[in-house]
Automatic annotation (TrEMBL):
GO terms for molecular function: hydrolase activity. This is Carboxylic ester hydrolase. Residues 27-537 form the Carboxylesterase type B domain. PANTHER family: CARBOXYLESTERASE. SUPFAM superfamilies: alpha/beta-Hydrolases. InterPro entries: AB_hydrolase_fold (IPR029058), CarbesteraseB (IPR002018), Carboxylesterase_B_AS (IPR019826), Type-B_Carboxylest/Lipase (IPR050309). The keyword Hydrolase applies. It is an enzyme of class 3 (hydrolase). Belongs to the type-B carboxylesterase/lipase family. The lineage of its organism: Eukaryota, Amoebozoa, Discosea, Longamoebia, Centramoebida. Keywords: Hydrolase, Signal.
Amino acid sequence: MMVGKSRWTVLVLLLVVVALTACSYAQTVETECGPVRGVVNEASGVAAFLGLPYAQPPVKHLRWQPAQALSRDLGCWKGLRVASAFGKACPQQYMPASVMSEDCLVLNVWTPNRTLHSSSSEKLPVMVFFHGGSYVMGSGHFDGSRFVNKSDHQVVLVSINYRLNGFGFMALDELSRHDSRGVSGNYGVTDMIASLEWVRKNIASFGGDPNLVTIFGQSSGGTAALMLLTAPSAKGLFHRAILESASTRVDMSLADANAQNRVFVKKAKCDGAADVYGCLLSLSTDQILEAIPWDEYPYYNHPTDMDIPIFEKGPGAMLGIVDGVTIPLPVDQALMAGLFNDVPTIIGTNEQEIDFAPAAHLENYTIPEFQDYIRKRYEVATAYNGLPQKAYDSIGADIHATCGQLLLAKNAGMGFKSPVFHYSFGQDPSHPFCLMPDWCAKYALHALEMFMLFDDYSAYMPTDYVPNAVDNKMGDIMRHFWLYFAKHGDTPSNDGFAKWWPINGNNVRWPEDYNTYRLTVKPTAHRGWKRQECEFWNANGFYAFNWNS
């Protein structure tokens, strides 16, 4: 999801305001690196500890190296650290230079203030959130106190920054030769693993249970959770996983990634240098950002993600890759084999993902005009009926996300001993949701479930959307299921809603058939969800157009 420069500037100002809303200091907490003091939002009773380093700054010789643990001599602090403001975001397009830095590996903790004063040994479940943004933009900076407050103070929330774009996912032969793993790329994934190591060592001091950690993320953050399921070095660091609108294709080899990224070396004017690695290491932050191929092959900006694809226009750069070490196997193969982190997992998508910023605005088309539009693109009539814009958005969602996610969930259901749950989020916003200058979404768009879950409709970008009672109810339902899952690794029973069964549960004819739970304000259970549509798209080669970051 790409966001314009002016909207980033406004969002930065909003985040400054968020950081200032708390009005008193929290109790001092001891961490392995030293004491920290956060701030308490008096209205919600939630304590926030912001901008806590979890790894050494990835600068100078550590720029393209796996995340390095903090130590008393490297990265820790002396005396009391006041954790009342967000740290710098990781470098990315459009964001003002003053609020981003390569020294960006920080995390934020929100915890009920009462847990800091409690003598009880009982700890709360921990949920670690990975932000989206196609692995090229975004940060962990949002108001997490709302989520903790709306969850009845029954959870500890952590969000993180991780390296992005060319800083976090550049794979090149020259980098591999200097990387301690012997490979390159997936630096952002090593950051996530380092953050989970930090949680394991420190979260008990904030009232969280290090043995009850759920990783979850939206969009590329969901893909991050997927990659961690298949990362051997993440084993034992988390105990549940939730993948919201994740990409399903993490299958590019290190060799192919190197070939894909040669254009970066050329644009950086390091091609042909006697010491290519030294040349790259000498580049400034701005020079690296300028050399990244945003809008040319391999398209780091993913320009077709919100369109119905045609075969002349493939997906953008694949940033998370199979490097052979951090990620040893393509993720679908790893899941089917039950490798490497077999934990209870939720996987799902939104029914009109691309309504976030659709490439085609068809709201004024008649149904015959829309059917003609589809036939001209694919030379075939499809089973999609109804309003043209919603049908267009549904086709795009199925091709890019839904059908791949179904395959992924079924693979996990076959390989995992732990339960795997599949969902389809189908709740529309209560009124048009204007995230883009020229578009107001009306349907179950990309990220809507996250906005409702966090009760924060400006989590990614500023918006004047004001939720009503229906939106709030959907947020309550999301938190109900997510928090129960974080506590128990299962879905609730006898809670007044239809039962949400594992994808292969309740005597389903597995693997020919499967269970899906449709999340709306009136949740419903289904069998064989989207079977006809997905069989058509997958049989005709459209799996290649699944999102890949």
